[in-house]
Amino acid sequence: MKHKIIFLDMDGTLYQTENDIIQDNALDAIQMLKDKGYKVCAATGRPLNQMKLILERVQFDDYVLINGSYILDKDFNEIGAYPIEKETVEELVQLCKDHKFGLMFHFGDATYIYNDFYPMYYFCKYCNVLDSLFYDQTQTFHKRHRVFNAVIMTKDKTSLDAFMKEHPNLRSDLINVKTDGFCFDIFNADNDKSKGIDLVLNKNNMTWKDTICIGDSTNDIGMLEKADIGVAMGSASDYVKSFANWSTTSTYENGIFNAVAKILKEEDN
Q: Which GO cellular component does the record give, naming just one (predicted)?
């Protein structure tokens, strides 16, 4: 086989978020890859604590979590981590207090709402992660633990835009879910899934030439562009698809199975 390792996005790619479904033929496709000797890895915006429902059905060889900022091996040992600087975290907390933004932090293996509890609650309910959610009314958990990602909700993003302009060390990604206003992921500016994948490839003595990546969203662009084969889901925007080698069908239309079947057919030739 030409390639050795494949990285799968979760939400909108392998996982149907709103109804907690992984298609049986997608699981079959993963097993087909493993039987052929491929390493199958997760590359997701989710922290480990929000992977529970997925891990009940499939286990991965390595985990690129929180958009490349928290990387674990198959036994959940840390390979690498890129947390947000503590001073910047404090500034995010103050911003959200001052402007009454909804705020939630991912700490690698824990997620805490800091304010705007119910909007964040409904967001997490949509993502099927309520059982991994905690509420920190004191807003102090970040003082003792590393923060890898902030989720901010706001109806008026003018103040957030100004904050981001003053903090070029951060980037914001719009989360495409139904919310009352805007919902953003906030990360280190130089973090993306491809940075986490680099660590996994180094650990396995592999390169991007050995790599296949499948994803559907803007946070997948880096890995789709760098992979020897980058596959966009059918539901991806034309912009995201422009960074991939080709597209498969959507997650509702057997997208993973169709992509893997095509890849294995070409690899066998």
A: cytosol
